[in-house]
């Protein structure tokens, strides 16, 4: 079966007569909308694609406004695989990179144009005409984007006061009122560093909620053990492609937008005689600038412990 653009839909979505296809069709539609938005943004960046952008904005069926984020209903995960849902809930921080990698694979498989562009970027750099190589490298930059997954509709929504150490690293939903928002700033998620002594690159250095450099150089003849002797590579690398966990590579780091919200527990949840409690909520990527002071929201994510910078 194919969608309205002629792209083949994943076969597994229609093996069961009706029910399974209906259950997963929203995600196929989301993947199509994500691919269409990326392609329309690519056309707009080159001075064209006005018609495509207009069609995307007016497309029926509740098209997603996200270009790199897949919204996933947690109840669908439970219905599909209970063990998978339990693993994601209990160890979300551990499995999040693999979920992002799965989203990237799903989007590329659901839209053949992006998959071809992803493969064509590497091929275009090694041969062929100059114009074809430039086009492939330009389009492949959209196929190698970092993708994110946003889970929602968890069975329980917790009050802020119930957040304890047993919730660290677990997937949870909390309800609260936004009291303050910060500016949107860039955040380094995964970095590539160059040793200042031998020049060897250390790729895929995942940041541990603060600026994290390599502790030792992998070159056995260098053995540089001073983190201050590593420099972050800022060039993104047009033909770098993506790593196994769905992050972009090619000599640069993976950055995303970042915003901090100050969230206070709802007035109805404050015990008599107690002061309201607050917590900082970090929003990333396309979730920034979606809440303002005074909004009552449900936030789904994981509780993390940040290092004390003053210690």
From TrEMBL:
<keyword id="KW-0238">DNA-binding</keyword>
<protein>
    <recommendedName>
        <fullName>DNA replication licensing factor MCM6</fullName>
        <ecNumber>3.6.4.12</ecNumber>
    </recommendedName>
</protein>
<dbReference type="GO" id="GO:0000727">
    <property type="term" value="P:double-strand break repair via break-induced replication"/>
</dbReference>
<dbReference type="GO" id="GO:1990518">
    <property type="term" value="F:single-stranded 3'-5' DNA helicase activity"/>
</dbReference>
<dbReference type="GO" id="GO:0005634">
    <property type="term" value="C:nucleus"/>
</dbReference>
<dbReference type="Pfam" id="PF17207">
    <property type="entry name" value="MCM_OB"/>
</dbReference>
<comment type="subunit">
    <text>Component of the MCM2-7 complex.</text>
</comment>
<dbReference type="InterPro" id="IPR027925">
    <property type="entry name" value="MCM_N"/>
</dbReference>
<keyword id="KW-0547">Nucleotide-binding</keyword>
<keyword id="KW-0539">Nucleus</keyword>
<keyword id="KW-0131">Cell cycle</keyword>
<dbReference type="GO" id="GO:0006270">
    <property type="term" value="P:DNA replication initiation"/>
</dbReference>
<dbReference type="InterPro" id="IPR033762">
    <property type="entry name" value="MCM_OB"/>
</dbReference>
<dbReference type="GO" id="GO:0003697">
    <property type="term" value="F:single-stranded DNA binding"/>
</dbReference>
<comment type="function">
    <text>Acts as component of the MCM2-7 complex (MCM complex) which is the replicative helicase essential for 'once per cell cycle' DNA replication initiation and elongation in eukaryotic cells. The active ATPase sites in the MCM2-7 ring are formed through the interaction surfaces of two neighboring subunits such that a critical structure of a conserved arginine finger motif is provided in trans relative to the ATP-binding site of the Walker A box of the adjacent subunit. The six ATPase active sites, however, are likely to contribute differentially to the complex helicase activity.</text>
</comment>
<dbReference type="InterPro" id="IPR008049">
    <property type="entry name" value="MCM6"/>
</dbReference>
<dbReference type="GO" id="GO:0042555">
    <property type="term" value="C:MCM complex"/>
</dbReference>
<dbReference type="GO" id="GO:0016787">
    <property type="term" value="F:hydrolase activity"/>
</dbReference>
<feature type="domain" description="MCM OB">
    <location>
        <begin position="160"/>
        <end position="233"/>
    </location>
</feature>
<dbReference type="GO" id="GO:0005524">
    <property type="term" value="F:ATP binding"/>
</dbReference>
<dbReference type="GO" id="GO:1902969">
    <property type="term" value="P:mitotic DNA replication"/>
</dbReference>
<feature type="compositionally biased region" description="Basic and acidic residues">
    <location>
        <begin position="38"/>
        <end position="57"/>
    </location>
</feature>
<dbReference type="InterPro" id="IPR012340">
    <property type="entry name" value="NA-bd_OB-fold"/>
</dbReference>
<keyword id="KW-0235">DNA replication</keyword>
<keyword id="KW-0067">ATP-binding</keyword>
<feature type="region of interest" description="Disordered">
    <location>
        <begin position="35"/>
        <end position="62"/>
    </location>
</feature>
<dbReference type="InterPro" id="IPR031327">
    <property type="entry name" value="MCM"/>
</dbReference>
<keyword id="KW-0347">Helicase</keyword>
<comment type="similarity">
    <text>Belongs to the MCM family.</text>
</comment>
<feature type="domain" description="MCM OB">
    <location>
        <begin position="254"/>
        <end position="306"/>
    </location>
</feature>
<keyword id="KW-0378">Hydrolase</keyword>
<feature type="domain" description="MCM N-terminal">
    <location>
        <begin position="68"/>
        <end position="110"/>
    </location>
</feature>
<dbReference type="Pfam" id="PF14551">
    <property type="entry name" value="MCM_N"/>
</dbReference>
């Amino acid at each position: 079966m194919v969608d309205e653009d002629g792209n083949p839909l994943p076969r597994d979505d229609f093996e069961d007569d009706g029910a399974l296809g209906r259950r997963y069709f929203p995600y196929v539609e989301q993947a199509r909308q994500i691919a269409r938005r990326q392609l329309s943004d690519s056309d707009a960046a080159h001075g064209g694609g006005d018609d495509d952008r207009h069609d995307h904005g007016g497309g029926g069926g509740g098209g997603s406004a996200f270009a790199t984020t897949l919204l996933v209903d947690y109840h669908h995960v439970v219905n599909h695989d209970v063990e998978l849902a339990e693993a994601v809930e209990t160890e979300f921080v551990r499995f999040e990179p693999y979920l992002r990698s799965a989203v990237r694979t799903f989007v590329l498989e659901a839209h053949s144009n992006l998959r071809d562009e992803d493969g064509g970027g590497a091929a275009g750099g090694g041969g062929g005409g100059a114009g074809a190589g430039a086009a492939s490298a330009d389009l492949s930059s959209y196929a190698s984007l970092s993708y994110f997954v946003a889970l929602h509709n968890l069975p329980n929504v917790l009050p802020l006061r119930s957040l304890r150490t047993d919730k660290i690293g677990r997937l949870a939903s909390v309800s609260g009122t936004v009291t303050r928002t910060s500016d949107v700033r860039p955040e380094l998620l995964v970095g590539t560093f160059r040793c200042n002594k031998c020049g060897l690159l250390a790729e895929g250095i995942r940041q541990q909620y603060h600026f994290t450099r390599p502790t030792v150089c992998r070159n056995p003849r260098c053995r540089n053990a001073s983190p201050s002797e590593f420099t972050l590579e800022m060039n993104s690398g047009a033909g770098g492609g993506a790593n196994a966990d769905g992050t972009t590579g090619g000599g640069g780091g993976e950055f995303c937008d970042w915003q901090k919200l100050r969230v206070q527990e709802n007035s109805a949840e404050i015990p008599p005689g107690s002061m309201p409690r607050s917590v900082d909520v970090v929003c990333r990527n396309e979730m920034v600038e979606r809440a303002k002071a005074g909004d009552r929201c449900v936030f789904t994510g994981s509780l993390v412990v940040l290092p004390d910078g003053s210690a």
